[in-house]
Amino acid sequence: RARDVAEFLYDVALESGKKIPILIACNKQDHGLAKSSQVIRTSLEKEIGMINKTRAAALTTTDGSSFRHTLTDTGANFSWEDLPKPVEFVECCAVDGASVGLEGIRSWIKI
Fold first, then answer.
1. Over the stretch 64-90, which tens digit does the pLDDT of each residue have?
2. Which domain covers residue 83, as residue numbers?
3. Torsions phi, psi of 58, nearest 5?
4. What is the count of structural domains for the chain?
């Protein structure tokens, strides 16, 4: 699952403008076995790094252009701080009667 989410986020980050912020809402925090936002952040960082390296190493196109679309070209492991846009992780729970972390989402939307 992390790979699928990472590929989606990779495309969103690549195709969106440089100044468009990204919010990653880590839902279901009311469950005892839910992963924390830091664990999710680290897991996605690793997966996106692997995707970035794979796309950077891909063969050039058959039309002779060598332009490759990658998020970063630092050559180092991917880090969220490498992106030219802010990325924020918020832990939340959106179950009836529980509103854990929703204030973080509301304040982010007002940015």
1. 665 567 777 766 788 888 888 889 998
2. 2-109
3. -65, 155
4. 1
